[in-house]
Amino acid sequence: MSPIAVAVVVPVHDEAALLDACLAALTAAVAHARRTHPGIRVAPVVVLDACTDASEQIARSWPVGIRRIDARRVGTARRRGVEAALAELGDPAPEDTWIATTDGDSTVPLAWLSHQLDLRAAGAEVVLGTVRPDFADLTSAHTAHWLATHPRGRPAGNVHGANLGMSAAAYRAAGGFPDLDEHEDVETVRAARAAGARVVATDVNEVTTSGRFEGRTPGGYAAFVHATHQRISGQVSP
Description:
8 strands
């Protein structure tokens, strides 16, 4: 059996304030996966999309591949990252390859990648992981609301590019990440489902994402956080 090849992709647009923490966590998770799954080959790639801040300098201080583009589209960034990582791995056979993605404003837990690989071994072709906002960015009321509406052990199965994994075979069957400004993750999973991929939702190894209200895409996770804050702020005092 061929060793599993793993492509890890991180799209970045002006995330200098958060990127160091992102890549520190990712580097630890990759090292952990190499210990728990001996023989795997991992190619983490950061895609710098139209960055005008210090993101590139920060990325270069970590053991990651770097690609620069000027698309201002997260779908394009994610797709180019997959292409670059697979090329770095030598274009391995799809059945022996796993693709994982997170975001430049997010931190993954230590067992993030190894858990995805365990689910792959159990038959998963797409893994939908949960994401929670950084509670340090929220009011106490917002934090309490989030905890109350996300009971542990009952993942909603929402699609988040910040915590997503899939086999290269499922990725190819889905046509890859489309060149979209947002929701490229949702469209890719939709296409993978339509192609018959086995989709597994998990809230183990939850990814923490910035709780900011203004994100890099109009309808991304930041918009969800902001809408939730507005909804509860009229009901519960911070």
